[in-house]
Specification:
By secondary structure, this protein is α+β, with helices and mostly antiparallel strands. It has helices at about 10-20, 50-55, 80-90, 140-160, 165-175, 190-200, 205-210, 215-230, 255-265, 270-285, 295-315, 325, 330-340, 345-360, 365-375, 425-445, 455-460, and strands at about 25-35, 40-50, 60, 75, 100-105, 110-120, 125-130, 135-140, 175-185, 240, 250, 385, 395, 405-410, 415-420. It has 17 helices and 15 strands. Helix 7 (about 205-210) crosses helix 8. It is elongated and about 105 Å long. About 35% of the residues are buried.
Length: about 475
Amino acid sequence: MTLDAGPDSSGIDELRKLAGTKLRPARFTATGQSFQMGEMTGIVTALPIVAVVSLNVDEVMTRSDYELEGIEPGNRVISLDHVKKIKKGLRKHANKLLTGTFTLAIAKEGVDVELLAPISDGIDIVKFSVLAGHRVVIVDAQHRNLAVRELWDETMDAVRQGVLGADEIAEFLRASAIPVLILLEGDKDEISRMFVTMASTKPISPSLIAVMDREQFANRIGLEVARRWKLLSRANRLAFQSSTATGDTVYSAAAVRGAVANLFIGYKDRTPDMREENLRRHFGVVENPENENLELEEQHAVEHAADEALDYLDYAFARLPGWKDIASGTDPKEFRAQFVHGTPAGLYVVAGVICAARMSSGVDPKYVIDLMAKHVKWRRDARVIEDEKTKVPTHPDFEGTLVVTEGVVNETGDVVGWRTRTGGGARTNYEKAARSVIDRLIKVDPELSVLRSDQVQIDMGLKAGGKRGRPRKA
């Protein structure tokens, strides 16, 4: 621009215009919609991924380091495993990159806002600049933010190294944007309160995830079994909106998914990632981006797994007390109240014992199911008196694991009866209960002692494999 020194020149007007401009350095400038959220102003926009990656979003104090008198808002501790899972999903579905909205908070004085056009009452199109020198705090998107940044860096490194397929992912990332909500709020206590409010919303039920998240191999097998298992009457008795079965439902989708996994890999499912990894390894469909046939192989594995699982589960449905009662018309609510395998923990025991039979050479799982149906007491209130001195009744198979027998005491402190309550769904309970059932079966047929062998117990995750501790001195 050339400025004329004449008194009436346009250069004077340009100087005046320039003098009125806020010449403060900005982190970025964008266009968005400004609106009111009570007394707080929000601005919603979309930023290219490259801009988000280049934006130095300030780290927030982790909740483990939170100080009541500190100057930083507290936040959750970052889970690197969670970041890895998000990143994996973004990479696999880069063609439809759904990150969700990033919510940031910035002090009001840290944003210059210029009105461009009103839309309706309280909603305006604005041009805004986030100014340098003001903190940008993540209210919601800690894990997604880190996942996007790591994915960008790793993809660009892969492009430079000529990794197959990296160019395509890089193009998707360069062309994609992330929806961003900016809250004009700088008070640390308010930011912390808003984070807690957002984090306190009701999470998605694990059973609903088991039904909806088809990305997970374990979910796909579990859902296929739930659809076809005669016990569930084509999923009419499957609870998937909640984590527990109620009314006419028998089991939740999450419980069925867990039991199907137990049937194949035993109790090597201590975390969702471990369950997924071990199931994939069992069926030979380990994730490999270079395997172009992986999706087809996974589908064949799901069908094969479901067929085998249903062969055993439908057989057990026709024979196992409680299950066969449902087949005869017993109300599912009565079944859940009266039988130990009316709980997820009890279901995991049945599946675990079938798994032990599958892993034992020369053992027919259906023979084991027949023995379980005949010789194991599945009713919750089954009691025997083993100690004639105390006369205290206990459950013959599941006392202290799936059930606990308690005395009913009157006003004077005398025991006038007995009642049974569930022992809880802890892993230690149903793993111990599975061992108890196996021991019962071995007493009936000693040739089944292979079910208790070290190799089977290790393969099921009921016993640690390998040597531990210091090596012996030479």
